[in-house]
Specification:
Layout lengths: L1 H9 L4 H13 L17 H20 L8 H4 L1 E4 L2 H5 L1 H7 L3 E5 L19 E2 L6 E3 L8 E4 L17 H6 L3 E3 L3 H5 L14
Parallel strand pairs: 1-3
Antiparallel strand pairs: 1-2, 4-5, 5-6
Length: 197
Amino acid sequence: FSAWIGPVGARGNWAISLRNLRAVLERGGSSWVDDVNTPDRLEDLDEITRKAFRSAVAELETRLGPSPGYWWWGRLHTLTHVHTIGRAKPFLDRLFGFNVGPFESGGSSTTINNGEYTLSAPFRRVVGPSFRRIVDLSDMNSSQIVLPTGQSGVPRSPHYADQAPLYMSGRYRTTFMDEATVRNTGFRKLVLNPAVK
């Protein structure tokens, strides 16, 4: 694959290369369809496709076992919400739990549950929605929202990662929009006053 998309594409900037590859596949024949590792022969698209299919099946068997019933997307594709400190200092992540995940992750760049991957880490989701929201303008108090992790940025807070299971399962939380409804549904008020000197 890297022979077709080159070093730039192999680093992850490969959308244009994939578009060109799709065009080659749709047309059928092309001088671009060849295994560069066999310089003594020129393969056709059918041969390359069969070889790629066999290679994909072999990789799935190696990673997930021999039974296709256990080959599902999320067993390979995962999402970890990586905190800057958790990325830079993995030992601190192990101590304090900065990163949230990994989770089995569905979706791709062409699905509603958007998730992007790179060629250098093809099974690790690196991009996705920062939040999801559904708003019914005729009933604002039935608005639904979910964050990928939680409302708090403090790892020891109970609200640091409490929305992650909802987010990963496609569920939401109701968000009230008017003050009266907010005050009547578990409202708490915290006032911080600076010390007077």
